[in-house]
Amino acid sequence: MKRLLLSLCFFIFITIYSKAQGLHSIKGRTIDTASTALLSGASIAILNAKDSTLVKFTRAAENGTFELTGIKNGKFILLVSYPKYADFVDHFTLDSTTHVKDFGNINLTGMAKILADVIIKGEKAAIKIKGDTTEFNASSYNIQPNDKVEDLLKKLPGIQVDKDGKITAQGKTVPKVLVDGEEFFGDDPTLVTKNLRADMVDKVQLYEKSSDQAAFTGVDDGQKTQTINIKLKEDKKSGYFGKVDAGYGTHDFYKGQVLFNRFKAKQKFSVYGTAGNNGTTGLSWQDNNKLGAGNDNMQMGDDGSIWFSYGGGDELESGNYYGEGIPRAITGGAHYDNKWNNDKETINTNYKLGALGIKTTKNTISQNNLPDGIINTNTNETSDRNVFRQKLDATYTVKLDTTSNLKVSVDGMLKNSDNTSNSKSEGLRGDNSKLNSNDQNNSNDGKEQNFNISALYTKKLKKPGRNYSVNISQKVSQITSEGFLYSDVKYFDEAGVKKGGAVTDQFKTNTTRNAVLSTNLTYNEPLSKSLALVLNYGFGLNDSRSDRKSFNQSTPGNYNVLDKEFSNDFKATQYINQGGAVFNYKTTKTTISLGSKLSAVNFDQLEQLSGQRYKRSFVNWLPQASYQYKFSAQKSFRIGYNGNTNQPTNGRPVAACKSK
How many domains are there within the chain? Predict the structure, then answer.
């Protein structure tokens, strides 16, 4: 047994030793060429020579020295950067003959000196690490004359773009793509990536964008958005450009696209239009934002906030398209943004419209194997669904003085939809005798209107780090729909003789209204260089109504008999007071946040058909804590906890909420 343990220990030692022998370390020192001064804090990056992906990263110590360990065999690029100095770039190889690669003194030359007589060793860096931002130099990657930004992004290490245009960077979805730091057509990144030419791009920046509140206070609220910023070349910021694409195929398939852009200094104006029936237009991953989505319920948030939403529940309205039918899609829009008054004032506006129609013919054959026998069902269904949506948004930002800013955002949306479907199904027993049949017709016409306005005022006080902000928002929405439901269900015995059935012939109406007022006051007090206290208070008022009615016929074609079993009319009002305190500790590598919020909610709901009333008052305790440690600019560890409470959804336990 001892011999076996000794052999095992010897084997583990040899394995670890062999592995260690296959790893290398790199060291050196950064100095100024002219003055021989030591350059502390210089950025040191090791890149793969093959694709320029980042392998290791560090910064030079106070004495200018650096050392990177644990690097495997291979071909690499050393990239050394320092503000106002030319980059140092060198290619090198690590193999079994070299355990330690010592670059000795690395001389960096000031940019002013380069213009005179200095020749720099190396080439233009493909990647730069600037704090938390990774910057890609577009000219370092090969692109074709007609490539779009999407084609350029596919070549960048760590960034993936799928067939629908969805972007993933460093394992996180990228929902926002900016152009020179400004939004371009709002919440649709594909309008940038699929339409702007790649040869217009100077640099691509990748970073996590903080919320407006966090960016102002410097306190991480956990709301970060993976963001790509496209920086244009200076000579591409003025002028006109555009494109026209068109295609036609067999069986009358077609697609077309028109885009026009006018850039002049700090002004950008763009219009576009697309049309197609080949399934590639208007059916990408962000369609639920473009054309609207929702489901048929009343929901309650963690802080007691409540809202109504309604939708058809089909694959179009839920934002999911499963490839059924041939879509006919038309989209278009216009964008304008500008800066003036020494960049103190900015405006960003977008208008978008979209129309989508799908006709389907479907046959479904299914088999259910039950303990008492087999049921074979054959269903034939046809449907015609159409949606037309318009959306307008504008954001105005003004820098009132050196210490205060005001941001006002307005957006609205109008959507009309109509859906019809017809289905016939037949169920057979295992011996092919008829079990049941169902003929069903549905039609529904809907209209949705949304309007939102918000204002954020931020103010910095005399003491560094001391500031406050006020946020006010108002949201108003209304969704109406009406339609007919006809269903004829029949049941048969083993001899095929009808033994029962049910006919449903109803006219249904749905109206939901929601008005939400939200206010929030945040005060940030620095307690020390690393510790800050954030206090906040918010008041909310929510007035909602959901009126759903079903009517039966009194005479043919006259639907005026209310079916109370499948009707309800909820009216709800809420008053929300929420306050909290959060301590935030932040150093170069460590960020700790600890605090809690208390939300007091007074809830009053009335079901007007039955006269039932529900009054509730409750307090939600919402603790929060997070810890983050940054090993480097590209590597960090974060763990967080956010307490939440789920209130019972209004109307779920009430029988009148049944839907048929």
Answer: 2
- C-alpha to C-alpha distance for 56 and 60, rounded to whole angstroms: 13
Q: Tell me the three-class secondary structure of 521-588, residue by residue.
A: EEEEEECCCCEEEEEEEEEEEEEEEEEEEEEEEEECCEEEEECHHHCEEEEEEEEEEEEEEEEEEECC
Question: Is-contact 49 76, C-beta < 8 A?
Answer: yes
Specify the 3-state DSSP secondary structure of 130: strand
Do the domain assignments include residue 551?
A: no
Q: Which residue, chain included where needed, has tokens 């208008």? A: 351
Q: Can you give the pLDDT at residue 344?
A: 92
Which pLDDT tens digit goes with each residue over 469-503?
A: 999 999 999 999 999 999 999 999 988 899 999 99
Decide the pairing of beta strands 176-179 and 224-232.
parallel
Q: What's 88's domain CATH number?
A: 2.60.40.10
Structural domain contains residue 180:
yes
Would the CA dihedral through 154, 160, 161, 163 be positive or negative?
positive
**Does 183 lie in the same domain as 146?**
yes
Q: To which H or E segment does residue 607 belong?
A: strand 590-607
The amino acid that residue 157 corresponds to is P
3-state percent breakdown (helix, strand, coil) of the chain, nearest 5: 10, 60, 30
Give the model confidence (pLDDT) of 180-226 as tens digits.
Answer: 877 766 556 776 787 778 888 888 888 877 666 656 655 555 567 78
Q: CB count, 10 Å around CB of 529?
A: 10
User: Is residue 495 exposed (0-12), middle (13-18) or buried (19+ Cβ within 10 Å)?
Assistant: exposed
In sequence order, what are the residues at sequence separation of 6 or more whose Cβ sits closer than 8 angstroms to the Cβ of residue 278? Answer: 249, 253, 254, 255
Are residue 118 and residue 141 in the same domain, yes or no? Answer: no
Task: Find the domain containing 91 and state its range.
Answer: 22-124
Q: Which residue did the predictor score with more confidence, 16 or 196?
A: 196
Give a yes or no: residue 626 inside a domain. no
Residue 391 lies in a domain: no
Question: Is residue 106 domain-shared with residue 195, that is, in the same domain?
Answer: no
Domain identity same for 179 and 215: yes
For residues 62 and 90, membership in a common domain is answered with yes
**Which pLDDT score is estimated for 288?**
31
**Percent of the chain clearing pLDDT 90 (strictly above):** 35
Tell me how far apart the alpha carbons of residues 646 and 246 are, in angstroms, rounded to a whole number: 51
The DSSP code sequence of 81-117 is E-TTB--EEEEEEE-TT-SEEEEEEEEE-BHHHHHHH
Q: pTM for the complete prediction?
A: 0.64
State the amino acid at position 83 in one-letter form.
P
b/e code 69-101 from CB counts within 10 Å (16+ = b): eebeeeebbbbbbbeebbbbbeeeebeeeeeeb
Instruction: Give the pLDDT confidence of 436-481 residue by residue, as tens digits.
Output: 999 999 999 999 999 999 999 999 999 988 999 999 999 999 999 9
Residue type, 64: G
Which two three-digit tokens encode residue 435? Answer: 């079990």
